[in-house]
Amino acid sequence: MTSPSPIDFGSLAALIDTDDPARLREIADLFARSSIRMLARLQEDWARGDTKAVKVTAHGWKGAAKQACAAPLAEALARIEADLPEAAEAIAEVERRFQALQNWIDN
Amino acid sequence: MFDKQDLLAGMNVLVVDDVAFSLTLVSGMLREMGSEEVITANGGVDALKILQSDQGREIDLVVLDVNMPMVDGLTILKMIRDGLTEAAKSVAVAILTGVSEEQVVRTAFSLGVDAYVMKPVSKASLGARLAKAVAQRQENRVSTRLP
């Protein structure tokens, strides 16, 4: 079974009402750049032991991931919110999925 | 003919979100739908400063995220409706969020939100919901002025 694409460009095209590949690519790049900052924020929140901040950051990033049609990343972020005591493993999964998204954009 | 590009024609909008991607994407959508000016606030603290500034007096619509560090969207909504500034009292406010909990939605409406929009949202749907929110708020303003 093949894993889902890190970003569903078909759904994204419908959401933002464009079929211009350059515009879609621009939005994917924007999401990836913003995600670098969100990952750093999430890691800092976790290192500080601030679970409330971890939840807020994961939630905000999840909303952006949904709007970017990046479902695999959004699912991993939802897991952090759902089970904070197990967040360390969930954050590691977010890091893997974000890396997969970046590789996909770069190729 | 009705043109979706003009849904928000002439409006000054403040967009408040702590995630850079969401701020940029939503601002772009609003500009494409004819907004006169789109001001962005990177979180609640920033939003309050803007609303209390000269720039804040010109705002027709505030688009608010709910979960933000320091000052969240529902707190800003309450401050606006409680009369943060004279101009802000009558501004239209829309929540744009991934939060779907019924209690949060109920609280937002009890505080006087004009639209509650869930992410992800299409440009067309966002424009229609925001335009309706502004129209309703303007109607309320006119009806409260009538003798």
Number of domains of chain B: 1
Oligomer: heterodimer
Q: Unreliable runs of chain B, pLDDT <50, ≥5 residues?
A: none
The SSE order of chain B reads EHEHEHEHEH
- Give a short account of the largest sheet of chain B: 5 strands, parallel
Structural class of the helices, strands and pairings of chain B?
alpha/beta
The two chains with the largest interface, and their residue counts, are: A-B, 25 and 22 residues
N→C terminal distance of chain B: 36 Å
CATH class call of chain A: Mainly Alpha
Q: Give the helix proportion of chain A (percent range).
A: over 70%
Structural class of chain A: mainly alpha
Account of the protein in words:
Chain A is mainly α and 107 residues long. Chain A has a single domain, classed as Four Helix Bundle (Hemerythrin (Met), subunit A). Chain A contains 5 helices and no strands. In chain A, α2 packs antiparallel against α5. Chain A is elongated. The model of chain A has no long low-confidence stretch (mean pLDDT 92). Chain B is an alpha/beta fold and 147 residues long. Chain B has a single domain, classed as Response regulator (Rossmann fold), CATH 3.40.50. Chain B has a 5-stranded parallel sheet with strand order 2-1-3-4-5, with helices on both faces. The radius of gyration of chain B is 14 Å and the shape is globular. The termini of chain B are far apart. The model of chain B has no long low-confidence stretch (mean pLDDT 90). Classes of the chains: A mainly alpha (107), B alpha/beta (147). The interface between A and B is medium-sized, with 25 and 22 residues.
Keywords for this entry:
heterodimer; A: 107 residues; mainly alpha; Four Helix Bundle (Hemerythrin (Met), subunit A); 5 helices; elongated; B: 147 residues; Rossmann fold; five-stranded parallel beta sheet; 16% strand; globular
